[in-house]
Structure formats: C-alpha cells, structure tokens
Request: fold
Amino acid sequence: MAVTLMKGNEAIGEAAIIAGCRHYFGYPITPQNELPAYMSMRLPKVGGTFLQAESEVAAINMVLGASAAGARVMTSSSSPGVSLKMEGISYLSGAELPAVVVNMMRGGPGLGNIAGAQGDYFQAVKGGGHGDYHCIVLAPNGVQELADLTVKAFDLADQYRIVVIILGDGFIGQMSEPITLPAPSGRVFDKSAWMLSGATGRDPHVIASMRLAPDDALAHLNARLQDKYRVIEKAECMWEKSQADDAEFLLVGFGLSARICRSSVSALRKAGVRAGLFRPITLWPFPSGELARAAAGKKKILVVEMNAGQMVEDVRLSVLSSVPVDFLGTLGGVTPSVDEIVERVRSYAR
Amino acid sequence: MAVTLMKGNEAIGEAAIIAGCRHYFGYPITPQNELPAYMSMRLPKVGGTFLQAESEVAAINMVLGASAAGARVMTSSSSPGVSLKMEGISYLSGAELPAVVVNMMRGGPGLGNIAGAQGDYFQAVKGGGHGDYHCIVLAPNGVQELADLTVKAFDLADQYRIVVIILGDGFIGQMSEPITLPAPSGRVFDKSAWMLSGATGRDPHVIASMRLAPDDALAHLNARLQDKYRVIEKAECMWEKSQADDAEFLLVGFGLSARICRSSVSALRKAGVRAGLFRPITLWPFPSGELARAAAGKKKILVVEMNAGQMVEDVRLSVLSSVPVDFLGTLGGVTPSVDEIVERVRSYAR
Amino acid sequence: MYEGLFFAGFGGQGIILAGKIVCLAAMGEGKHVSHIPSYGAEMRGGTANCSVVVSDDEIASPLVPRPSACIVMNKPSLLKFQSIVQVGGLLLWNESLIDLAPSRTDIETLAVKANEIAEAAGSYKAANMVMLGALLKRKPDIASLEAVIGVLGVAVSVRHRELNDINRKALTGGYERA
Amino acid sequence: MYEGLFFAGFGGQGIILAGKIVCLAAMGEGKHVSHIPSYGAEMRGGTANCSVVVSDDEIASPLVPRPSACIVMNKPSLLKFQSIVQVGGLLLWNESLIDLAPSRTDIETLAVKANEIAEAAGSYKAANMVMLGALLKRKPDIASLEAVIGVLGVAVSVRHRELNDINRKALTGGYERA
Amino acid sequence: MSRGRPELDRERCKGCTLCVSACPEKILVMSRDQFNRQGVPFAVCFDESRCTACMSCAIICPDMAIRIFRLTAAASEPNVAASDG
Amino acid sequence: MSRGRPELDRERCKGCTLCVSACPEKILVMSRDQFNRQGVPFAVCFDESRCTACMSCAIICPDMAIRIFRLTAAASEPNVAASDG
Amino acid sequence: MPVETLQEKLVYGRPQVLADVPNHYCPGCGHGIIHKLLAQCIDELGIQQTTILVAPVGCSVLAYNYIKVDGCEAAHGRAPAVATGIKRVHPEATVIAYQGDGDLLAIGTAETIHAANRGEKITVIFVNNAIYGMTGGQMAPTTLQAQKTKTSPYGRNPADVGYPIRACELINTLDAPVFIERCAVSSVKGILKTKRAIMKGLRNQVEKKGYSFIEILSMCPTGWGMEPREAAAWVDSDMTPVFPLGNLRDR
Amino acid sequence: MPVETLQEKLVYGRPQVLADVPNHYCPGCGHGIIHKLLAQCIDELGIQQTTILVAPVGCSVLAYNYIKVDGCEAAHGRAPAVATGIKRVHPEATVIAYQGDGDLLAIGTAETIHAANRGEKITVIFVNNAIYGMTGGQMAPTTLQAQKTKTSPYGRNPADVGYPIRACELINTLDAPVFIERCAVSSVKGILKTKRAIMKGLRNQVEKKGYSFIEILSMCPTGWGMEPREAAAWVDSDMTPVFPLGNLRDR
Ligand SMILES: Cc1ncc(C[n+]2csc(CCOP(=O)(O)OP(=O)(O)O)c2C)c(N)n1
Ligand SMILES: Cc1ncc(C[n+]2csc(CCOP(=O)(O)OP(=O)(O)O)c2C)c(N)n1
Ligand code: SF4
Ligand code: SF4
Ligand code: SF4
Ligand code: SF4
Reply:
C-alpha cells in the first residue's frame, strides 16, 4: 500500500470513508476544522452527505437520527463543542445507537485556548452526560493509528450498538505523518432488526431511551447496558507495552503524552535507568488487569498526562496499593517535556 | 424558629432567598419544577428576577452574565437538562465565577424516566464539562439539609469564586419534611475587585476564561485553579459518621441512599451485626482522609448508590487496598431496599 | 411508635393531599414525619401514590417499602399494592370503586364506601377524607381526629377551602364508620 | 540520523508549507518524518511556526523542544525562538526582514537575504524556499535539493502551481548562497 | 335524507364533553349517575333517530371513542371501515 | 474652503488600501518599495495640499491609522481630539 | 336495529394506522385529535410503510405508541435535527417531526429555524397549546399575554418576558419552506381544515417538494385549568386573535 | 507646517474609549471599522462608565481589549443570554452584545430570537460577514448562494442547505424590539449610516426604550479570499441584494 503524508484530522476523514461512513454532521471548531472540510470535499464525491449543523447540539442529534436510520455516521468537535454533545451522547447510549464521535481536545476549561490538551479524559471515560453509560474511548497516538482506529471505531460501534469516542488532542489532529491507508474491515453488521426504514412487512421499530412503565423498565434497560459493558470490558481492551518487562519504573500515558513518554524511556535507558512504557489504547474499557500485571514488581509508576490528573485515577484503581503511583501533568495546552519526565524518574532512582 | 412542613424543592428556593439570591434562571424539567415555580412566585415579591430561559443552555449563560455582574444567582434542572449546562459550567469555572446549580437527578441515560436516581455523580464530581475544573458538590440527605446547604452553597460559591452543585435526587426534591428555615449566614463578600458594573473611576474589568497569549497564560490560570482546589480540599470537606467507631462493617452512601443505609444500620445492629455509616456530605472535595481513618480496621466497606457504581471509585481511591470494598447499586430510578443491604452485610458476617 | 403509611389511587383523588394532612397533624402532635409522593411518569393519565412515615424518633429512610397501613382508592391500586402491606398490617380499600375484595388473608382489611359517604357529606371528591377518617380510627397513634380537622385550614389550598366543611364531615363519617 | 527542525515566521510566509515540503522529500528518501504546525491562537494576526522531525528511526515524540536546526523568517520569531536551538545547532535567519543579528554564540548562525534572493527569483513570496534551500545545503542528510524540487509539484496547492518555477529558482538560490 | 348512528365506546370515553357541544342535533349528553371503569361519566346518545351521520361528534373526539354508521339503501357499497373528515 | 491634512501612521497601517479607494481627491497611494515593520506596504499621501479634510480615508480605515486635521482660521475652537463621522 | 331496507355503513372509524389502545392524554386534549388526523392522512396516502415519526419530549412523547409506524424519540427540542438525520439517510421516507411549543419554539428554536431554512424535506406538525403540558403547566413561548401559568403566576408580563411568538410568521421569512399553515382543532370545521393541511404537508414529501410546517392551535385543558369545552372556546376567543389562522405559503 | 494664519484642528482622531493598540484583525477587516464606530458612539453618549460589552466567540473575541469598558466573554452563540443576565442585574447599564453571523444566527439562534422576543433592553451589534472568520472560513447561515467556503467547497447549494438567513427580517416578526436596521461598512456613506444606527441603538438603552438590533454587512477579505477592496465592492454588489439595507423598525 502506498504511503501518504497526511494530517491527522484528514486521515480520520479518509479512514471513515474507507469504513463506509457516508454521513457526517458537525460544526466548525479549531483544532479539528480540517476534518469537516475534508468531509465536505470528499463525501459528495462518494454519494454521501456532509452537513454543517447549526450547532454541536444539532449535530449530535442529526447523528442520532442517521444512526437510528441505520447509517454509519460520524461527528467531530473539540472540547467546548463536545461538552454541548453530552446530552445527545447520553441519549445515543440509552437508545443503544452506534456512532463515532471525535474529540480533538484543546486547552480548557471554558474557552481556554486552541492548543492540544488532554483535559477531557474524565468527560469521555467517566461519562460527562447524565446517567450510567459508557462510550468506548480510543486514544490514538499518531496519524497511522488515527486512521486505523477510525476504521475499528465504526466496527465497534456497530457491533455493540455503542458510541465510540476517538479522543485525540489538537496536536495529533494537526500533525502530519506518513501513513498507509487502512483497508476496510469487511465486517458486515445486520441492523435490520432495529433500524428505522419504514415498517414494510414488519412491526414498527421504535428507537427510544425512555422507559416509563412498568416501574422497573428503565432498570432493565440499564441492566442490559451494564451486561454489555461487562462483555466489552472483557473483550475489547487495547494497550501497548514497550520495554516494560524488565523495567523498574513504568511510565503510563496515552496519545501524544505516550509518545513523549516513549522518547523519555529511550533517554532514560540511555542514562542507564530501566524505564518502560504502558500505553492504554482503549481508555474505556481501561486495561486495568493488563496494567496491574505489567506494574507488578515495579518500583514506581509515573503517569504523564496533559491535564491536572485524570487517567491517573484509573491507574490507581488498577494497581491500588501494590505499586506507588506518581503523576506528572501539564496544564492549559502545554506539552510535557522529555527533560522533566526524565528528571522525575531519575529522582526515584536516587 | 418555627417548624414548617416543606417540600425539598421549595425549601431550596426559600433558602436561596434567605441567602440573598435574587436572580434565578431556569428551564422546566421534572422532578424539580416546584423550584422554578416557587421562585417565580417569590422572587418578584422580594425585588428579584425570575426568568424562564429558552433552554438550559441559555439559563446557564444567563447565570454567567448575572454572576459576572456580581449577583448571587442560581439555576436548577435535572439530569438531561444538566448535561446541556456542561459547557456553561466549564466556562463559569474557567472564568472563576460563583454560581449555585441544583441537579435533582432522575433516571438515565437519555430520557430515561423521572424517578429519583444518583447516576450523575461522575458528571458532577469528575467534571462532565471539558477541561480541568472542579465544582464543590454538596449532597444533602433531606429537606432540612437541602435548605441549610443551599445557604452554605452561596457562601462557598462567593468565597472561592466557584460553581457549587447541589446534587439531590428526585425523591429528595419531592419529599416533604418538617424543617426549621435557616438563618442567613451574615457573611459578606466583596466582589468590587472583579465584578462588572461599569468602569466608574477604575480600569475596566474583564471576565473571561480564554487565555491566548503568552503561550503559558492558560497554564497559569489552570495552576491558580488547581491551587484553589487544593485549598478547598483541605478546608471544606464535610461528612457525617454514625455508629461507625465500633463497627465491623461500614456502609457508605450519600443523599437518599445514606438514609436507607441508616435504616439498614439500625436493622443490622438489632440483628447483632455491628454496622456503621459514613456519609460524605461534600462529594467534591471528597472526604478521603476522613473516610480512610473511619475505615481503618473495618472488615468490609459496602458502598450503596442508586447507580451502577460511581462514588465507589472515590471510596476505593480513599482506602486503596486497606479494606475490601463492595458495592450495591440500583439502576433506573429504583431505590435500594433495607432488606437487600442487610442481607448483603450479613453475608459478610457469615 | 413508627407507622409507615401508603396511599394510592388515581390522579385527582386527593392522594397526595391526604398524606400531607396526616403529616401536618402528626407534626402538631410532636411526631417526626416524612412524605414522598410518587410523582407519576412525566406524563398524563398516571396513578398517584405517596408514602408517609410518622414516628416518635427521627426518620432514617423516608421510604415505605412495607407499609403498616395502606389506603387504596381504586382497583388498579388494590391489585398493585395489596401485596406490599406488611403481615398483620392494615389495608383500607374504597369499596365504592373497587368491585373485588383484597385477596390477602394475613392482614387486616377494611372496606369503606368512601365515595358514598363522601357524597353524603357533600361531594364524592372528599372520598380521600373518608378513608383518612377510617385510618385515624384504626391507627389512633398517628394523630387524633381533632388534630387532623385542625390542620385542614392550612393544608387545603385557598381555592378549595370552601370544601373544608365537607372535608370535616367526610373525615368524621369515615372515622365513625370504621 | 535524527534532525529536529523548527520553522517560524508570520502567517503568509509559507512556514507550514516549507515544513511539509521537507517531510515529503525526506519521506521519498526513506526517512521517517513528522510535522506539527503551531496552528495559531484561533485568531487573526498571529505568528506561524512548525516542528519537523526527520529521522532514520521511528519517531517517538514529534515535538521539537530543542531543534537541531531552526529557520526564523521575521524578527519576533528570532527573538522568541533563538533560545531554543540546541547548543551547536543551526539558526538560519532572514536578514531581509530582521535588523538584528542573533545573540547566541554557542550555535551556528547563518544570515540569508531571503526576500531579496526570492525577489530575484521572481517573487519575494518565495522567501521560504530560499531559506529551505539554505537549510538543505547545511543539513544535507535531511534530503537532497533534487528531492525537494521533485516534491514541489505535489506539495504546492493547485492554485499556486504556477509559482513552482520561481520556487525552484529560489530553492537553488538559497542553496547556492548558503 | 340518510340517517345514521353514533357508536359510543363508554370505556374509551374520558368524559370531555367535546362531542356533546359538537353535535348539531344536540342528541348527545353525558351520563348522569353512571361512571365507566375509569370512574368518569361518559357520553351517550339519547335519540339515535335524529342522528344525521354528520360525524361531527366523532371528528372532534380526541379518544376515538365514537364511530359513525350511516344507514343507506341495501344495495350500497360494502361495509368497510373508513376514515373520513 | 478650508483645507486639511491626513496623518497616516505607517506602523498601524496594514496595507488594506481601503483609504486609497475612499479618497475622493485620489491623493493616497500605497508605498511602493517601502515596507513597515510588519512587512507590508503602507498608505501615504502624495499631495497634502489637495486634502479637503473630508475624512473619508479616516472613516473607512479599520485600524485607526489615519487622523485628520482641519486647517482653520486662528481664532477657532481649541484643538482637542474629536471623533466624528 | 337499522330499518330492514337499510344497511349500516361505517363512515367514521379508527384509521388503520392508529393503534387500538387508549391514549394517555387528558380528557379533551388536542393531541388525541391531531394523532387521529395524522393517522387518517397516513392511511389515505398509503404511506404507513414509508413513514418515520419523530416524537418529541412533551406530552406526545409516546406518539409512536399510538401511530403504528417506525418511530424515533428525540431529545427535547431536537426533533428537526433527528428528522434531518433520518431523512438524509432515507430520502424516500416520509419523515414527520411532531412537536409541542416548548419543544419547537423554546429549547428547539435553532433546530426549528435551521431545518426550515435548509428546506429539509420533512413535515413538521407543531402543536401550539400555549403552555408546557408535560411538565405541569409552565409558561411557553406561545403563552398569551396575562395568561397565568406555573412560572408566570401573576400572568405573562410582556414588559418582562415579551409577547407570544408566532412560529408561522417567523418561518415565513425563510426562503426554502414550501408550505406554511396555521390551523386549530378547537372545532369540527377547524379539524377538517387541519386535516387538509396535514394532508398537503405529507403529500409535499411524497412528491419530494420540500419542507412543510403546520401549526395547530390545540387545547390543553389541564395546563390551562379549564374544562375541555371552555378550553376549545378559549382557542377561538383568545388564541386565534394572536395566532391568526390561515395559509401563509403554498408552493 | 501649517500656514501661519491657519490653525490645525484635529477633526478625526482616536475615540477616547478605543484602546491605543494595534488590533489583531486582518487587513481590511470590517471589525476594525465597527469597533471604532462603537467607540465613537460610547464616547459621544458619554456612557463609557456604564457600558458593559459582551464579546462573542469569533474573530472579535477580544473586543473588550480594544474598547475600554467592562467586558464579558460569552460562550459561542450565548452573548444574548449573557447580556440578559448582566442587564437583569444592572438595569441602569448599557449592555452590548457584539456578535458574528455564526455566533448569532447558527449556534446562537435560540438565544438571539428569545432575547429579542423578551425585548431585553440591550443592543445587539450583528456583524454579518457571510462566513466564519475565526475558524478559517466555513459556511455561515448568511453565506450566499454558490459562495465557496471551506465547508461548501463546491459553492453553497440552496437545494441542499437552503438560502442565506436574513436576521433583521426574522426579528422583525417579533413584537418587542424597538429598533431594527441593516447597514454596511463597505463604503464611507455606509459607515456614516451605520454609526447613526449604532447611536440610535445605544440611545434606546440609555432612554430605557428596549431591544435594538443592528445588522452590519462587513468585509472578511481573508475568509472570502479577496483583496480588501474587492471585498468591499462585493458587499455592495453581492451581499446587499440579498440583505437589503435600511431601517425595518424604529419605535
Ligand atoms: C433537556 C430537557 N429539558 C427539559 C425537559 C423537560 N420537559 C419535558 S416536556 C417539556 C415541555 C413540554 O411542553 P411542550 O413542548 O409545549 O409540549 P406539551 O407537553 O405541551 O405537548 C419539558 C420542558 C426535558 N425532558 N429535557
Ligand atoms: C461551542 C463552540 N463551537 C464552536 C467554536 C468554534 N468557533 C469559534 S468562532 C466560530 C465562528 C466564527 O464565526 P462568526 O461568528 O461568523 O464570527 P467571525 O469570526 O466571522 O467574526 C466558531 C464556530 C467554539 N469556540 N465553541
Ligand atoms: S353524527 Fe352528527 S348528528 Fe349524529 S350524533 Fe354525531 S354529531 Fe350528532
Ligand atoms: S368527545 Fe369522546 S371522549 Fe369526549 S365525551 Fe365525547 S365520546 Fe367521550
Ligand atoms: S397536559 Fe395538556 S397537552 Fe398534556 S395531555 Fe394533558 S391536556 Fe394534553
Ligand atoms: S478572518 Fe475575516 S473577520 Fe476575521 S479578522 Fe480576518 S478579515 Fe476579519
């Protein structure tokens, strides 16, 4: 396959089209504008629909409609815009509709700035919307993975009838790297049992998250959701380890932070410090078991994030008291530096 | 002071007025409609402003404007409506504006139902909006506390220039109990250094969450926010213990669940099982240290929530591996029963 | 004392109000009380019910999963709720609208022709008061009939105060017939 | 080899494009590359810069906190970024628009009259290409001049392709003068 | 002139009385002492012979509690459900 | 008829040329080989004597790079900043 | 018993697509009438198998339980966005957004205006009952001047919160819609007119013409605190002067 | 040097309330002109000390840095809501919501309509430049038919996404607003008219009259990919036919 230099945001777009996505609804916001621009250029050429919605709220509800109608559908935004989608994501989750939502995070809170950041981990992973639900959260660390995970995201969404969030950051979206465009997975999902298409020769289908009667109807829906989540937790954790087995110190990071950690591991190894990296690729389900195994016997874990400490809670929940967990965070769209990471880890060794 | 039978939602309204709140912006949603209705009746009588906004999004942004203008201001909603306020809450937090937001939680996700529930713990406590921010989250367990904590909420909001969320559930909002209306705290907060009122004889004030230049301006804002959060964590934790000291088993719950736990403790004690209760009153800051102390030496902790397991993560983060933590949750607006709690705890004793 | 009460019927029968009146009266007599309505399904045409606790001690859980006394005002409520009454508890049912006796045998049951008695007192709309009167007779520790009559003025919204004469008669009628 | 490059100037000077061209050329020669623009402050009137890594090995972090070579196209960029160049690294500065020499003495510096050379090649807008040419001469392991000229056709958007003749001349001009 | 018959479903009737006001012949009234299983008085026709099958009552009924039959000469179209108005 | 003088702030000028088209006397042009510190050509007045102080250029300038002075008889109002248009 | 020589013919019966179950609406509620009309039109156009109904959050949240077509819930105010998503996937389907006044004109204002402005090929049925029914009678954007509601307990005061919004007139400023009409279901005549408007609105979709908007003045006896008959009379006496009936556009 | 017998008088200078700093707008951007007009009006009305400016998310996000009055950021689209909150606390203040077309007519449609409908006593300055400037030139609700933008790369297609929305006409269907006018800053004459409209809009607040809405057609040379002069000409040639200039209401 040919190698192309592609911008992260555009790679998502092309990968979505490869995955069979023909409907995109979104609203402009930096730093992800190249994605809607790309879709507006490409989708009409492949018989698809690009629609710039009047707002992020409208966009996520158009996604809901298109998904209910059986389509593979995507929206994208960045932090403030994604906050506006919270109600809609909760509705999609309650109605068990598949959708792919991209968040190219920027510095917050509020209007903040447009530098890349990782401050929306809690929102994506714990659920920024109301009620008990989960989205599958994928954290690509570069352009190739953005493309590959986009294709995977559509399959996961359809397989589990769930929202899949691609949680990137502005830097990754803006970054260009050479990639090999992924092939379609070829997986086919039959939606005929539930999708809306007109009740031709069958009983009407209804897509709804409301459960009023009997009293425990909503509890039943939730129980089914929880069962599904347990299945996903078992089946879909993804992670990457590098130089972790013999390491004394384990760095944990996702997305861009993980790449900075990888450089830090090299630097540390060069300096004679046995460091390794554990990188969760799925943030939900969080690879807790794998991390606990990887962490066993380490002297210390250092979690590096471009936020004030979010994933670190899941790391702690994974290892509990078995290994001490330290945290290094950067705020407001600043990236962590290899130097400070190296310095921190060396301080443990002293 | 006279004892009055009051509905939870109305008690909040009256307490807010006692606390000096003269501006309310909201949008109808069950199960909190008695609060706006009450405000629409009372505020005009005390020279205040009640305004039914066109949406929850508009309401939270009116709150932002009124708060920037120096007023004590409140909004209220229930789960789906609160999801729509996430962007606004992130903006308020970034601009360091005080506000009181009430969420009378209902069954989710999506439209769900209108029974009381506790499924928005993560949203309130971890931050459903984008970026690194915290709201002080208060979890009253009855009508008296709803009133008392409402008065306190306004003081906390002004003292720290922070959003305070009163996280109740539909049952508590709808419940009537005899209460003694709280007195005003008498605390006075001088907002003249930052509020908008017209630049009379001073430099203009600007209220904003955006920080563009220099590159680390947003990092600085965030660092200041984080410092503030550390102060609040030290100073403002609230909790209640009952029969916890000699207990072998510790129940942990908030709001209505905590009251059901209290009944369960009585039942267990009657049955000869030494159970006790730890009830966080502030969910953020979470009383981790106190809980860890209270938990020391217990055989087991049982966390009871009307959700699929949310606060239980903070309990685990507090006690780590020191005490085993079990969870009992109810879904979709169903309340836990004393019987099942008792049964669960007795199973530990066996 | 500790009584967990449960009132059930359809919207418009004054279920919530009956519970509130009990609370106010019991409060006046120094009791702890709590009242939780089931506030329907955010839609029209639902049933109405509420849980009331009256207790000498502070009330932990305000929920009443197994009431010591239960008032049911229409047939769906009887069918749905008779099972939750605690063994040995009391079930008052509105014979005027329910054509089927309770099937439980391990509880005390009492049929009350509430609509008829209320109609006789002036309006069938006071059927809730009839049931309440009957309850007070059977569960005198909750509150006295006088106390309940005494709070009517506060409890009933201004619009309906003219009904209080009827309410008083209905309460007494129910009390006497129980 | 591993080169961390940094390009800085104001919007409209073709900073991002210069970085992209380097990537494309280096890719063609089998290198790993990455390119991150600083995409301004979501507002107008900002500066533009980008970080490029060219490496024989897979690239871990695409960030370039301490570039081995840095091109600055205007004065604010010089003032802001000369300090980040790694000791012994290379700083190329556009003498046409900067009236102040770099103050660092622990790095290699090279003044390029980019606008003049570009103007001579046909348009001052090709100043970025002049700088790039100079860079290629000094850091030949990044990519060959031919490779860079070879990718111009792909890299430059259709609208501006007629400029590629000028670009080629500007590249060569910069290369020759460095 | 043909005549008709309103068929009132007392259990579906919610007692709104809209049909009563809508009937131009004024032949509908609410039951007085009778209640349906939902406990409300329901609409009844006290003089079907005056019904013109104008369908006004049925058209306005929000609860589809009224069907209208028209009485026609025997050789008319087959008797199928139809919605009109 | 009074005469005037446009005062052009070359460093504030962004070179948009709106003033050039707005000037009814056509006495403004963009600098040719000169650039300001931002690197753009700036507006200059090549014949102040023809300025009528009509203020058109100043009014349309988005960057407040033009101030206008009117030349009046000595005994006129005090010389304070005024905004007009 | 019919006279011997006569035969009984059912001339007004339940539309096939209207489920044979009691609805949950209050006595005298206009939603019941409008559901029936919609069902009749779907029947008569024979489009049951290609219709997709988007139900709003409001009293009619369960509309898909009564009208037996494929149905979709929309979050409060978002029915036009959801309908847009559906229609863009199934351009052949007849997509209906059924909405109340809180839904369509308050929280959903942006979605309403923009679906109309795009000329989405959908049919919007707008039930204007001048109040929020489902949540217990709060002020709506269409609440009349001086009308008392749960959140305008002293009557809607235009000096404070403005005048009722006229949806048809608002939408009539946009270029794309092909059909805009306001009707009322407070009388038999009004109902017949309403049916014709709905028919037209649906036919415009079948014929791929474009966006249709039908506003229907409707009774909410519960929210208004009126007897159903009073409520119907109030529509005619108080609502129609503010919301004049008639067709505003038919292309 | 002026002629001896003559004296130089400054007749056009920086308004006092306009900060003496370069703005960040692109060359030829209308925002700079409009800021200046607003500053002149504030100066002339002498209301600097009682004015509160709500800046939108858009190119003018930093407006409060240029106009030296109390300033408040609003989330994208929410300026009217923020202004409402402020005005309800300080009814004596002059509260201005300054907004772009994406802000006011897309994401903020509901807030726009409802603040206008309530007759909030604020002044809305609506900068219509037919595009999203800040985010790099995407389609706006006011983008013209066939106009190419980043998200309408083949030109805005009315059959797919409808026609440009006319804000003034939309708001003119509401009862409460007291002043509605559309102007343009593409020419000196237009600028003078615009200033008068802004003046009126602010005076309406000082005089406690009510809600004023001023739409200003403005150039975005960068977003349109035009030279500033072309852009100004395009406002007159292409925008004004779609958005006719003039006063729609003055009470
Ligand atoms: C986001 C959100 N906000 C508020 C609500 C509560 N809510 C449910 S229905 C409704 C309004 C109902 O009024 P209307 O749209 O006029 O319809 P009606 O019930 O009168 O038919 C509201 C505010 C909700 N479910 N979701
Ligand atoms: C919730 C949210 N959505 C999107 C954005 C991104 N955004 C910033 S400005 C803008 C639109 C700018 O266009 P306009 O309002 O027309 O103002 P202009 O820049 O043209 O003056 C957008 C979409 C944001 N900051 N927040
Ligand atoms: S069909 Fe006409 S005449 Fe007959 S009962 Fe109904 S309304 Fe009256
Ligand atoms: S209109 Fe229907 S529901 Fe109403 S009274 Fe008549 S039959 Fe009954
Ligand atoms: S509340 Fe009003 S709109 Fe809702 S069902 Fe009852 S009458 Fe109909
Ligand atoms: S992008 Fe357009 S609106 Fe924004 S500053 Fe530049 S010219 Fe002005």
